[in-house]
Amino acid sequence: MNPVGEKEIRGSFVNCSKGEARRLNLPRNLPDLPWDDLDFLGWRDPGAPDRGYLVAERHGVIVGVTLRLAQEVRRSLAKSTICSVCVTAHPGTGVALFTAPRVGAAGRQGNTVGTYMCADLACSLYVRGRKRADLGALRFETLTEEERIVRAVVNLEGFLDKVLEDTMSSTTL
Ligand SMILES: [Zn+2]
Fold this sequence. Notes:
Blueprint: H1 6-10, H2 18-23, E1 41-44, E2 51-58, E3 61-72, E4 80-82, E5 89-91, E6 95-101, H3 104-108, E7 112-118, H4 123-127, H5 145-164
Bound molecules: zinc ion.
């Protein structure tokens, strides 16, 4: 993705208050991130461990979404859990369940969308092999890197579609 700056990121959030968008903690090394290898920017809040954020370009517009850590996936050495965006299998707590408030009235009424994702939200780096899960992920993958990237982008778009869908707006009273 094209590099985005602090102002653009803070102005992009669609599912939180302006105050929250102003206060949230950005990645510390923003200008130095490997933008060429990012399909979207995802990070955990360095000051609030239960918060995470996604910033992605959607139909030419930068869209930011806040996430809440709903549940650490149970640590187990024998089992792995799969990220629903990049389909990387992680052992232990490498995948976490996040929830995002929906936009608009639905979100204000507490309506959220949940997704299992890489706990560090670095899906773009896993699909490119720049980061590896501890258990030799992608061992059984037959897709090329390019195909994995496309799949992750499509999966992320599906998630963003659900967050951006204001389910209450179509309600007639
Ligand atoms: Zn992932």
